[in-house]
């Protein structure tokens, strides 16, 4: 980037010294178009390099600052960059407030609530399918073995599956009400 900047500066100085620009009257349209595009790119890179240089200059003074006194307790307000610290704190607070505002706005939207409900519905659906398969498979294994007492052990699994189905239905009604709600 620095090398490119130096090349650009040297070309600009040459043109300023000569006070003449290349004669484009004799060039064909493609060459003119190419030259204009290159000039635009050079201007854009020059602006980018200037922005980078300005940012570096703004950052560098903070690295050179040191606290010399080591014997005393120095409060922050006595430090020469205290106002700069206060300003940076205020900037961070406003950015945080903006982020918090955006976050609250997203969370309170109906589409986000629908998304969360759909996520819960999908999780419950997978859970119900797993529990149902486990329940049916264990019933088929317990009946031929003649284990009627084993079927009593499956009652908690059955209750859990029914409870999950109930939650599943409630979430579907809640989602249905979101779709029906006036906008």
Detailed description of the structure:
It is built from six helices and no strands. It is mainly alpha-helical. The chain folds into two domains: 1-66; 111-180. Helix 4 runs antiparallel to helix 6 (155-180).
Which keywords apply here?
transmembrane, mainly alpha, membrane, 183 residues, transmembrane helix
Distance between the termini: 53 Å
Order of helices and strands: HHHHHH
- Helical stretch tally: 6
State which percent range the strand residues make up: under 5%
Q: Output the structural class.
A: mainly alpha
Whole-number tally of structural domains: 2
Overall geometry comes to elongated
Average pLDDT, to the nearest integer? 74
Task: Return Rg in Å.
Answer: 36 Å
Biggest sheet: strands, sense, closure?
Answer: none
Gist?
The protein has helices at 2-18, 29-64, 82-108, 110-145, 148-153, 155-180. It is an all-alpha fold.
SSE map:
Layout: H1 2-18, H2 29-64, H3 82-108, H4 110-145, H5 148-153, H6 155-180
Helix pairs in contact: 4-6
């Amino acid at each position: 980037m620095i090398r490119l900047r130096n090349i650009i500066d040297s070309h600009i100085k040459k043109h300023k010294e000569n006070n003449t620009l290349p004669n484009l009257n004799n060039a064909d349209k493609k060459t003119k178009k190419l030259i204009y595009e290159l000039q635009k790119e050079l201007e854009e890179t020059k602006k980018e390099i200037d922005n980078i240089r300005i940012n570096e200059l703004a950052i560098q003074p903070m690295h050179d600052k040191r606290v010399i006194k080591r014997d005393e307790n120095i409060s922050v307000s006595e430090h020469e960059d205290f106002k700069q610290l206060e300003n940076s704190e205020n900037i961070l607070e406003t950015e945080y407030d903006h982020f918090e505002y955006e976050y609250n706005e997203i969370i309170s939207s109906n589409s986000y609530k629908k998304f969360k409900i759909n996520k819960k519905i999908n999780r419950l659906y997978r859970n119900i399918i797993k529990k149902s398969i486990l329940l049916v498979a264990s019933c088929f294994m317990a009946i031929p073995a003649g284990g009627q007492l084993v079927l009593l052990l499956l009652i908690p699994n059955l209750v859990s599956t029914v409870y999950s189905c109930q939650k599943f239905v409630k979430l579907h009604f809640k989602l249905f009400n979101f779709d029906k709600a006036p906008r």
